[in-house]
Amino acid sequence: MAEEVILRFDEVSFEYAYKKPILDEASFSVRRKAKITLMGQNGAGKSTIFNLINGSLKPKKGTVSITSDATIGAARQALDRADFALTMEEYFAKAFTTVPGNLKGQIKKVLDAVNLDIPFERKVGEMSGGQQARLLLAFALIQNPDILLLDEPTNNLDQAGIDHLITFLVMYEKTVIVISHDADFLNCFTDGVIYLDVFTHKIESYNGDYFTVVDEIAKRIERERMENARAEKIIQDRKEKVNFFSNKGGKMRKLAKKMREETEEMEDEIVDVRREDRTIRSFHIPEQNVTTEVVTVKSVLTYYGHLPLIKEIDLVIRKRMHVLVTGPNGIGKSTFLRSLVAGTAEGAKIAKDVRVGYYSQDFSQLDFNQTAYESLASVVPPDDVMIPETVRSVAAGFLITKDIIGNKIGDLSEGQKGLLSFARLVLMQPGLLILDEPTNHINFRHIPVIAEAINNYQGALLLVSHMPDFVKTIRIDETIDLTKY
Fold first, then answer.
1. Are residues 238 and 263 in contact, defined by beta-carbon separation less than 8 angstroms?
2. What would you report as the CA-atom Rg of the chain, rounded to the nearest whole angstrom?
3. Is the Cα torsion angle 440, 451, 377, 41 positive or negative in sign?
4. Which helix (DSSP H) or strand (DSSP E) does residue 352 occupy?
5. CA distance 136 to 160
6. Which of 375-384's residues contact partners 24+ apart within 8 Å by CB, and which partners?
């Protein structure tokens, strides 16, 4: 027997005051225990749909209906910066209106479920990106929700973490709706796809695993294009005949009028073919001319279990060197990069006057109160005269278009923040690139373009990435394996 519908959108429309419409009479339903993928281009409104489901946003028109007894738990893409100073126990207490007496027991249970072993007194802001990703999932699970919303859950997870998450989701007995750009991950458990079209603001629903649905969408688009091409040819032929008959008299003119009306009807019936996701333009990251050694690394602070350990390293990073930093979640990769940028790494130092282009996995390099334009203009080197039109042109290449460049960064989607970060690197012209999980939140269509730009970068590079297919496309000259030194 088919499961009951647990969630329904009925002709829901929504728009932000400062944006174009996000949803236009969107309708879909989700059955209890379903595993659903929510697809759509960066900025299409996927996270907005999550916020409409959990009630933090209200539709402008239409209704969002949830079965009366169904509860909702959401694992967000990133920790709120305001929570960084909380201990584990304080953080999980926020999940409850009334904190249960057995909170520690419940915390231990959900941490075991996500394969995370962290002392309760550890502050959440001190965790690695992979540990934070697991923590966000555990925070949703401790609420024991009937509908679990996961927003990019594989971001920052190593392969072991992704495999554990897949196993968990396959075995999970309740409804799951996932936003992710990781196709292989999605195909392991998805049994349906909800697609949000960024151009029409409509919703399309499909049944089947992820790869089957993507193939079905591609074939449907091709069929519609071919049908439209045939229709447009017939329309053009009819218009030529209408023009010819219109110049004749009597019955021929009446025939021309009839044919004109029929042609107009045919034009109205042409299918509005869904446009493919736009891809960012190819780009080049200019490098600062640095003639000295860029980075000197003598040692790195790492973590085994929860114990700090100094790893002795002897590495000098020079111009044109691409260095990969590897190791499992929690070993200290992001901590190393973060401390290097801040100048607090005891065993490593960046040479004086080197401009550093830092891509942080949590976008801590961005001021969320700035507009996108202000953020871009702020990184232009002081000795470089760059007119506003140039800044806007660079932004447009990363799909930061005129309708959003004036918006505050805090109001952008995570994918748009990522693309903005790359636009900043182009304008900054750094001598050193430090990229911490640069494919997080990024639409898979953009990744080959980004990989090409990184490969062509002539400055020094430090890279952390848990995406093997992406790393394989990058030229790597040296590897700092924190498990071996």
1. yes
2. 26
3. negative
4. none
5. 17
6. 375/409, 375/420, 375/424, 376/400, 376/420, 376/423, 376/424, 376/427, 379/424, 379/427, 379/428, 380/427, 380/428, 381/288, 381/355, 381/428, 381/429, 384/429
Residue 272 CA to residue 181 CA, distance in Å, equals 25
**CA–CA dist 470, 297 (Å, integer):** 25
Using an 8 Å Cβ cutoff, are 122 and 87 in contact? yes
365 is a domain residue: yes
Residue 208's pLDDT is what?
Answer: 83
Boundaries of domain holding 203: 5-71+145-214
SS3 content of the chain, % helix, strand, coil (to 5): 35, 20, 40
What DSSP designation does 430 have? -
How many structural domains comprise the chain? 2
Boundary residue ending a domain (166, 196, 214):
214
Give me the pLDDT at residue 321, please: 95
In a domain, 404, yes or no: yes
Strands ordered across the beta sheet of 348-350: 307-317, 295-304, 348-350
Query: Does residue 54 contact residue 61 with C-beta atoms inside 8 Å?
Result: no
Q: Do residues 58 and 174 share a domain? A: yes
The H or E element spanning position 111 is: helix 103-113
Percentage, residues of the chain above pLDDT 90 = 37
For the chain, which ranges sit under pLDDT 50?
1
Q: Is residue 18 part of a domain?
A: yes
**CATH (domain of 330):** 3.40.50.300
Res 343: pLDDT: 92
H-run or E-run covering 185:
helix 183-187
Q: In whole angstroms, give the CA distance from residue 426 to residue 338.
A: 21
**Sign of dihedral through CA atoms 91, 92, 95, 99?**
negative
Ramachandran angles phi, psi of 460, nearest 5°: -85, 150
C-alpha 307/C-alpha 388 separation (Å) is: 50
Residue 270 tokens, joined: 């042409």
CB 28 within 8 A of CB 205: yes
